[in-house]
Amino acid sequence: MKPYAGTEDSLWAATVSRRYRGVALAGDVACDVAVVGAGFTGLRAALDLAGGGARVAVVDAGGVGWGASGRNGGQVNPMLPVFQPNDLLKAVGARYFERLAAVSLGSADAAFDLIRRHGIECDARQKGWLRVDHCPKARDTAREGARLWAEYGADFRFLDGDDLRRASGSPVYASGILAPKGGAVQPLSLVCGLAVAAEAHGARIFERTAVGRLERGASGWTLHCGPHRIEAGQVILATNGYSSALRPDVARTVLSVTPIQMGTDSLPEDVIASILPGGQTIADTRRSIMYARREPRNRFVYGGAAMMGPGGRPYGFETLRRDAERVFPQLRGVDWRYRWGGQIALTRDRVPKFMEPEPGLIAGLGYNGRGVAMSLAMGKVLADRAAGTPAEDLPFPVTEADPMAFKRVQELGAGIALAAMRMADNREMRAAG
Description:
By secondary structure, the chain is α+β, with helices and mostly antiparallel strands. It has 2 domains: about 10-70 and about 190-255 and about 350-400, FAD/NAD(P)-binding domain (3-Layer(bba) Sandwich); about 130-180 and about 255-345 and about 410-430, D-Amino Acid Oxidase, subunit A, domain 2 (D-Amino Acid Oxidase, Chain A, domain 2, 2-Layer Sandwich), CATH 3.30.9. It is built from 14 helices and 20 strands. The strands form 3 sheets. Strands 4, 5, 6, 12, 13, 14, 15, 16, 17 and 18 form a 10-stranded mixed sheet that branches. The longest helix is centred in the C-terminal third of the chain and has 19 residues, at about 415-430.
């Protein structure tokens, strides 16, 4: 499997600031911590651990950024997709509620601070995130949630009418919320930059190295990677939407879904000037989701929900193109040169999961579309735990394996579910006029 397989049609592959080119494991290795997954979560954990003096080995069956970290929308959104504080309280309990709320609401600031500290070139900009309402009911729900979250430090601003239309550049939304701390990064550049930083601190990174089996022994863990072995005191699983049979109990806690995106080359100023003129990212409240952003040199990216077709190739781009032209009529007739997709992971309660299936084996996954900011936050938590921080002092509670009910049925029926969501969204939008 070549590095970045499945991402070569992306705008991110075309504009990455510095590709990371690693080697495959070619012999046996001993380390303090082995990290499985070379994405945001795993590389953040490796960076912190190696910076603290630990011997760290990172392995990935594909390569740095091959999974969701190199394919996502690059939006750095400063909160979990949890509607109200009480929803988070029910999910994690009173002991962890305020800690996790603070981590979530501060996650965008923390991400941009990490980028600055390590001098990572990834087109980082913190100009805000617009979450616009597709119907009055969604507006009322979003505003009530924003008011309640403000009691815990959330900084949201309501926009209506012409103010919202000027900020978004779209004529189809009448209201929304601006989160000023939100922003954007070039995600493939960021994940490659994290790899470079982790390696500079002493971490060893092995691409094209699949772990076939984990084996627990008296003194730690053995990772069986083809003919080679990695002996590690502890193991971090950081595979998120690409979690598999390596630990089925972990994989079954999330549902993998497939967002897709399209990107343009440079657009004329008269086409793009009115779209998101302040540089904010945007998403809406539909079940079937829309998210978009401007890129340097007047490029534009538009994304939404879709399906994986035969051979692992995403489809649904024609539907996405029509939606882009509906939301932003300025884009009618533009050439969407880049088209790509990947898998993200959803949890039952929309809260990421921190797990310890066995002593010395820890995992973090399930970012529910907030993967840039929250995966970096989770990476720090995993590193802290591996370094000896007591579990009860961390912001995420340790959760037991909680299999997603009828996971396989849901994955097989994802196309039907997506069609139903779109029908519900369209019905609400028609009713709103």
